[in-house]
Amino acid sequence: MYETTLKSGKKILSVAPMMDWTDRHCRFFHRQLTRHALLYTEMVVADAAIHGDRERLLGFSKAEHPVALQLGGSDPDKLARAAVIGAGFNYDEINLNVGCPSDRVQSGTFGACLMKEPDLVARCVKAMKAVVDVPVTVKCRIGVDDQDPEEALNALAEKVFASGADALWVHARKAWLQGLSPKENRDIPPLDYDRVYRLKERYPDRFIGINGGIREESEIDRHLEYTDGVMLGRVAYQNPDILTKMDRLVYGSSEPEPDPFAVINAMVAYASDHIARGGRLSHVTRHMIGLFHGRPGARAYRQTLSGEATRPGAGPEVLLRAAAQVAPRADVDAA
């Protein structure tokens, strides 16, 4: 995928792996909004993939493709085993987390703290590349703590590309492992997009994607002038309507943008199946709160989902009742 993208000059738009957010229900919902964007799982720890409930942790709908599995770990052998398991589930890519700053991740000696150990990251990538045929990629920061981002990011990129990594997705912020919470690490360290642009100049024949604080279509256009791909994070979750623009903006699609009301109907069918298998409506609807962001009736929609979808026995009709309170786009445009 990445080699083809580079040769063709095309670009990639992806939705970032986000803990507690990008589960299988979220990804199925996002796929209704964009046919082409690359979707990522939440981070799955290698040990969990090896020893845990694999269907619960790794299972997904075929409709989610293209979809990548993000793994967390620092043991090359365990990551290789987990990568094989992920490939067996038919993921389109295996991604290694070298960017998460949470205390829980640090205690396992992986995530952003691996920025300090590029040789170990390289061994991890090499071990995974040796056992799977799908792309193996890395998502990282520009550095951590007192590291010089010029030296730290160059060192990591050099090592992982030499070990066979197919792409490097860079969150254009440092992570401060001491003194800042994971939430603060998403906002307080300043963004340095130019640092990622310079990395792309250094590696013109390697795929470099950019992530961090990107919220507007105009920003996406600008970043794609200097990098090979853009990864959207919280904006895709909080205002998912932005995804309906991406197939046209990034992939040049001439197909009509998805209609949110048609998306509601698709999610009603999906939620019905999930409930029939023993799930709860809120497992699905919690990801859909922002669907009608900015439209008349959006507040009533949100209130209905938040108040009714969590009740015991709630059914998919709650989704229809919530959506019925939102003005169709044609009515809004005519007003």
Automatic annotation (TrEMBL):
- Please give the family membership noted in the entry: Belongs to the dus family. Belongs to the Dus family. DusA subfamily.
What residues make up the catalytic site?
C100
**What does the record give as cofactor?**
FMN
Read off the InterPro entries from this record: Aldolase_TIM (IPR013785), DUS-like_FMN-bd (IPR035587), DUS_fam (IPR001269), DusA (IPR004653), tRNA_hU_synthase_CS (IPR018517)
Q: Which reaction does it catalyse?
A: 5,6-dihydrouridine(20a) in tRNA + NAD(+) = uridine(20a) in tRNA + NADH + H(+); 5,6-dihydrouridine(20) in tRNA + NADP(+) = uridine(20) in tRNA + NADPH + H(+); 5,6-dihydrouridine(20a) in tRNA + NADP(+) = uridine(20a) in tRNA + NADPH + H(+); 5,6-dihydrouridine(20) in tRNA + NAD(+) = uridine(20) in tRNA + NADH + H(+)
HAMAP family recorded? DusA_subfam
Query: What name does the UniProt record give this protein?
Result: tRNA-dihydrouridine(20/20a) synthase
Cell wall biogenesis/degradation among the record's keywords? no
**Which residue numbers delimit the DUS-like FMN-binding domain?**
15-312
Which domain of life does the UniProt lineage start with? Bacteria
Location of site Interacts with tRNA?
N97, K183, R186, R299, R302
Which NCBIfam families does this one have?
PRK11815.1, yjbN
Gene designation per UniProt: dusA
